[in-house]
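Problem 3 from the worked examples.
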Amino acid sequence: MKNKKDITLDWLARYTGTDPKKYGDWILLTNFQNYVEKFSDEFDVKINGLGGPMTSAINREGLSIINFGIGSANAATIMDLLSSIRPKGVLFLGKCGGLKKSTDIGHFILPTAAIRGEGTSNDYFPKEVPAMPSFKLHKYVSGILVDNEIEYRTGVVYSTNRRVWEHDEEFKKYLRKVRAMGIDMETATVFITGFANEINRGALLLVSDTPMTPEGVKTKEKDAEVTRKYVDLHLKMGIEAMTRIGDEGEKIKHFTY
């Protein structure tokens, strides 16, 4: 256990419950267990890691899904662990709050960049380094959405470590000032740690609430409604994108600077 690969290879198995050798080239990430359960039901495969910090499942073609939990620290952890197997691409299926009137519940956001308000990414690069997805991966996901005639938004999202901020009017003024389209806790971290670990990465976010107004704050009932109406489609788009890019997509090369 003297180098990063030895550590991360051992920990990937321990954290996710899956033998690293079984992971394929394309991986879906989420922080909701019902996504893993739906994936398991879709492909009739077992869920690994139950009772541990993360869960995972792999279909017979090698497409994988991992629930890494909530928050930027967990997002950084899974991306570091995945560096041991060097997947060709990772797509984060997350939920976000819509910050603009043009982003309503049920919309999809394909982020062009993320503002690094979460702090975790500072351990990887200076703040001046932008948190961005891999363009070719997002280009392919965009094509899948268009083929399925699904409306989506592009723009910048803000990632924060603050889970409870909806009462803070000063913070909401700041969010308006930076012109972010959505807010979540993990996207910036996934982008930066993917860049640090030379992993091609992207995110397809589902707008699950509109927290800039009191009536738009997520509740248990509203979250259940979002799950019922939109989660199946969200997962379907992720599965289709990562399956097809593996079969027919153009090669993605990671460039460093």
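Problem 4, a separate protein:
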Amino acid sequence: MLLINEETVRELLPMPRAIRLVKEAFQSLAAGGALNQARRRLVLPSGAVLHAMAGACGEYFGTKIYSTHPAHGAHFLFVLYDAVTAAPLALFEANYLGQIRTGAATGLATDLLALPEIEAVALIGTGFQARSQLEAVLDVRTPRQVRVWSRSPDRRAAFALECSRQQQANVRAVDSAREAVEGAAVVITATSARDPVVESGWIGPGTHVNAVGSNQARRRELPEDLVRRASLIVVDSLEQARIESGDLLLALRDEEWANMPIVELKDVVEGRAARRRTDEVTLFKSNGLGLEDVAVAAYVYEQVKARTAGTEAGPVHS
């Protein structure tokens, strides 16, 4: 079994490739050729939590397990298996693997739902997921400017400077979430907030919103009126959204879900749901799927295996 570290994942998994892999995984899911198992959590009295999620696609299946503690951080691992023999193939350090596949899903949703020509992108949050979120959106759209806000002035200034250099884009820190969001055609929220970080009145017609930060039922980044205002709400998995999408669970009563314009990302990928007008507000509520981990991990595994064999890597089977 191969052991694949973070540095190898960073080297072999560029964002454009990750977006394509995630798109192919959702195409396979739509066609019935892939499986996803929603996240489950084991909560300890100490405050530590064990999280587990799984998926299968093509020749591979796998599971991500990770532990978190509010005072001690998070630790991510992913195990990839052969779908035919069930043999373990690789163990990944999966911190960056998770970041890039989450960013890739946002990039895919933005490519499918955002207006083609945009002036500005707003990013709320500069933490764990923020960099890959911005990288993915800038891979599919070319705004004139990116406006970034987070609670720490020093952190958001450093983040803007670093991303300007890395992404070769006009990224600047601003003094408030409102300043970041107003006039932006794409808005990304990637925070650890428990309560909304934006207001519906800041969101203009035609805006696409990516809400990434919360995957717990009692936390949300978006206010109820913004959720209800969206003409199309896209989730990566309805099953998982009903368990942990606080942005939706805190905005909608149980009986309302069937009557709201909520679809899965695979439906948008397959063209069964789409933006209808340029003035609509669309929303992608991301939770992250085990299927996405399988798709990107399988690619990295095949590249490492080909490198080890001293041959060129063939097509990815995802």
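Solution to problem 4. The two ends are 19 Å apart (CA to CA). DSSP finds eleven helices and 14 strands in the chain.
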